[in-house]
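Sample 3 of the quickstart, ligand aspartic acid:
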Amino acid sequence: MKPLIVQKYGGATLADPEKIKSVAARIAAQSKENSLIVVVSAMGKTTNSLIDLANQVSEHPQRREMDMLLTVGERISMSLMSMALNDLGCPAISFTGSQAGIFTDDSHVNAFIKDVKPIRVDESLHQEKVVILAGFQGVSPATKEITTLGRGGSDTSAVAMAASFKAERCEILKDVPAVFTADPHIVKTARPLRELNYDQMMEMTFWGAKVLHYRSVELAKVRDVTLYIGPASNKTSDGTLVKKGLNMFESCKALSLNSHEIVLNISCKEKNPAKALQNLQRLFDQKQIAFPQLLQCETNQSMTEILLTGPQEIMSAAKKEVQNHNEFSLQGAELSTVTLTCTGATSPEITQKVLSILSERQLATHKIMLSAMSLTVLVDAPLRKQVIESLHQLI
Ligand code: ASP
Ligand code: MG
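Result:
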């Protein structure tokens, strides 16, 4: 068999029939040299439109039914892509996550992949077909239910397939040509990063880099899958390689800026932090809301404060429920995090530089959080872009 590559095409690269046909032409050309498993996202903003639809018919759409609904998006892309490829004389077949043997736990809306038994994928590859796989979905062997992996989860489907087949590499192909030092829409002088290691990419995605699903990077690290992030167009560009190790000695250097746009600071009357979190989880479960990403939990004499972030739709649902419940309330306005990731470790020097730039520009921070590889400031959401722009001079 030819060397196997897993490719994942993001929703923006498949937004309309013309784009699907041009990606199909690219796949057909590459299939001459490689066996290909192609993971697709839903076309354009399809997933958001499906979520809107759900919210129009129900106040609290059940998570099981959300999974039934949202998996449709990727199913449209996969079948259209397979049709386009077959028309080009390139034999292809599409599979849903469950047909491809992606087994998850039994949770809905944010399921984890527990095993991959890709029997039909393997057979089709041996028949020299390009396999098109619907991203972001699987099936729970325990409940027999269809599940999804959380927003952006197609990247994780792709890495799981690459790990299972020990593919040469996993290519994440997008309408942006690489991973950048900061969002190029915010910072005009942002530069592409050519090489990153798994830890750096994990830190960046944990703190809001949207180029990749956080869990896909973690899985790639554990299973030693080389990741390449590059453009889906035929234009040549170097893209970004994410792999083991790094060509350096000890040094602390600012590397990239990322942010979570919406962070909620929820205060809870319960002083015991474990109980406070349990109560919040219970509230979200009742209202069919997936628990957002927990950033911090802090208690004082009178209450517990919980910092949460997540996709816009989850955060607005969470905000509404918290405001309506008398045990919880929202502290202050909407917040954002801005995180500077460094090579090596964060040094006091970098921290001082960050804080003096922010105070010179009179950009107030509520909190500073440090980890081995990054420094995060918590700011009012309207200041987010200014903070990113002014800190980019450190990179
Ligand atoms: N279509 C899903 C989403 O928009 C999954 C993905 O794109 O990876 O979140
Ligand atoms: Mg999508």
